[in-house]
Amino acid sequence: MRTGVAGMSNEALTDDDVARYARVVGLRLRAVRRQKRLSLQAVERASAEEFKASVLGAYERGERTISVPRLQRLAQIYSVPVDQLLPADMSQPLGRAAAASAASRTTTGAERPVRKITVDLVRLNEASGPERDLLRTFLASVQVQRQDFNGKVITIREGDLRVMASMFGRSVEALAARLEELGLLYRPSSNGAT
Question: For residue 110, is it within any domain?
């Protein structure tokens, strides 16, 4: 079986799938550009007009599909890993990925609640040890995806917890226990001060 976008079979792709993918990539491009506080014109200037504002805008609206070499070049201009410019989960056929993602976020009384933890980023930056660098890298990528840069804490949802746990070869419970042991879990003070 031949594979195409993100390892999916080419037979599964329709023109609508490709257009939807271009729109999702465009949203990521816009989100990262805005996070960097750059206007379309600023990117045009920073790229020595390699990326015209009108063309970059068309990529961001999903009206044009960006090529891999241009995506890599844009990642260099934004100083981000190229994977940060791509949608997070494209492992399923495009038409079904959004539906599966939405379904996984819907909770009913019969489903288990979404688990999450809050990591104290200030303590993480002060920590030492082999786990720190890997945690910092992973949490920085979560911050980029969410555009969440408060710099003090970050809440890690169940899906990200599973990824973190697998990075360390642990269960989610064992990872949470280790983060607690390292003093990296955020505990709000009882007097309301942070």
Answer: no
Distances (CA, A) of 11 to 19, 100, 125, 157: 16, 20, 47, 33
Would 187 be classed as within a structural domain? Answer: no
Eight-class DSSP state of 189: -
Q: How many residues make up the chain in this entry? A: 194
Query: CB 156: neighbour CB atoms within 10 A?
Result: 21
Q: Which of 51, 76, 103 is the last residue before a domain boundary?
A: 103
0.85 exceeded by the pTM? no
The C-alpha atoms of residue 64 and residue 122 are separated, in whole angstroms, by: 41
Domain extent at residue 123: 116-181
What is the pLDDT, as a whole number, of residue 194? Answer: 44
Instruction: Give the tens place of pLDDT for each residue, 55-104.
Output: 999 999 989 989 999 999 999 998 888 888 887 654 434 444 333 333 33
